[in-house]
Amino acid sequence: MKNGSIDIKEEEKRLYQEYRERLAELKRIEKEGKAVGQVFTKGLLPIYVLYILSLGSTNGNDIAHKIGDRTNGFWIPSTGGIYPILKKMEKEGFIIGRWSEESKKQQKIYTITEKGISEFESKKLLLKDKMKEALEVFKIVYKDLYNED
Predict the structure, then answer these.
(1) Rounded CA separation 33/28 (Å)
(2) Half-sphere exposure (CA, 13 Å, Cβ side) for 84?
(3) Confidence check: pLDDT of 86 > 80
(4) Is the separation of the CB atoms in 123 and 50 below 8 Å?
(5) Nearest Cα to Cα of residue 78 among 97, 60, 101, 104
(6) Are 49 and 86 in contact (CB under 8 A)?
(7) Residue 90 class from Cβ within 10 Å (0-12 exposed, 13-18 middle, 19+ buried)?
(8) What is the CA radius of gyration of the chain?
(9) CB contact at 8 A, 95 and 119
């Protein structure tokens, strides 16, 4: 009987842990759904950082420069905005950061993980329609304000 109760207690612990993990995942999904409406403030930089890292490993400063190059200088995020995102992504397992010793100046080189690629693809799908809507709104507002197409 004692072995049976130990097994039941272990199963209760396992089920409770599974419940907590699933609940956390549902909360994360709900939170992401709310964040979709905030395309520019919350969604755009993290997804673009993942995109840049999907092209190859690099450091945080280079990510800012690559975004600037890709957007023809219209958007050059500060490294002060990029490094907290990298730290969070590293903690979540979306990227791995390793210190480089190849140059005189040590720098952390970030590489996207399989989990990060999956997150990137998921966010891309989640944001696609909202980004299209935002572009349409900007076109309408621009036309109204400046009477140009």
Answers:
(1) 9
(2) 6
(3) yes
(4) yes
(5) 60
(6) yes
(7) middle
(8) 21
(9) no
The residue assigned the tokens 């995102």 is 85
For the stretch 142-147, contacts whose Cβ atoms lie closer than 8 Å and that sit 24 or more positions apart, written own/partner, are none
The owner of tokens 């891309």 is: 124
- The helix/strand/coil state of 49 is helix
pLDDT digits (tens, 9 = 90+) for 14-58: 888 988 988 888 887 776 655 443 444 456 899 999 999 999 999
> In angstroms, what CA-CA distances link 134 with 2, 48, 50, 110?
62, 16, 21, 30
- Measure the CA angle with vertex 43, ends 18 and 134; round to 5°: 130
pLDDT at 85 (0 to 100): 94
78 contacts 64 by C-beta, under 8 angstroms: yes
Strand spans (E) along the chain: 95-100, 107-112
d(CA 24, CA 39): 23
Q: Is residue 64 within 8 Å of residue 45, measured between CB atoms? A: no
Tokens of 12: 């209760």
Question: Would you call 108 helix, strand, or coil by DSSP?
Answer: strand
Please give the model's pTM, rounded to 2 decimal places.
0.67
